[in-house]
Amino acid sequence: MFTLRKTLSGVKARRAVLLLLPHLTLALVSLVPYGAWTTEILPPVLSFENYRRLFSEAERLRPLINSLWMSVVSTAAALMLALAGNPLVKLYLFVLIALPLYHWAHRFRFVLEDVGLHGLRTPIAILCYGAAVLGTVATLWVLWQI
């Protein structure tokens, strides 16, 4: 007796097989030695020779390693952008970037004064703290855009 549940599960199974066909075809082709499959419907010979060559010859392994590296980098970038969209993470990044700017401005100002630029106290303070304010505004703008 057919029920709706059995019918739906059969449809899902057929859909899963249909979606897996490209992957299954790729797996089948990877097991066929070079030049062995020409006009037949199914390959006459299956072997792991392609995989042996892939892992034993460095020039064949290089594109695989490059693809893995690129996928790791792109996944990490996507994760960072997703995290940066959270308001609490934005606040944390703002504090993490802005506070050291003011610390740098204060330290750099007094280093310049200790070097002997006492007569330029006001312009040095304006330039140092102005750079910190500019960095803070730039940080706010970038975080607002994310």
Descriptive overview:
The protein is mostly helical and 146 residues long. The chain has a domain at 82-146. The chain has helices at 4-30, 49-56, 58-84, 87-115, 121-145.
Indicate the topology.
Elements: H1 4-30, H2 49-56, H3 58-84, H4 87-115, H5 121-145
Q: How much helicity do the residues have? A: over 70%
Give the helix tally: 5
Oligomer: single chain
* Rounded Rg: 31 Å
How many extended strands? 0
| N- to C-terminal distance | 56 Å
Apparent shape: elongated
- Give start-end ranges of low-pLDDT stretches: none
Strand % is under 5%
Largest sheet: none
- What is the helix/strand order? HHHHH
Task: Output mean pLDDT.
Answer: 87
From the helix content, strand content and strand pairing, which structural class follows? mainly alpha
Outline of the structure:
With 146 residues, this protein is mainly alpha-helical.
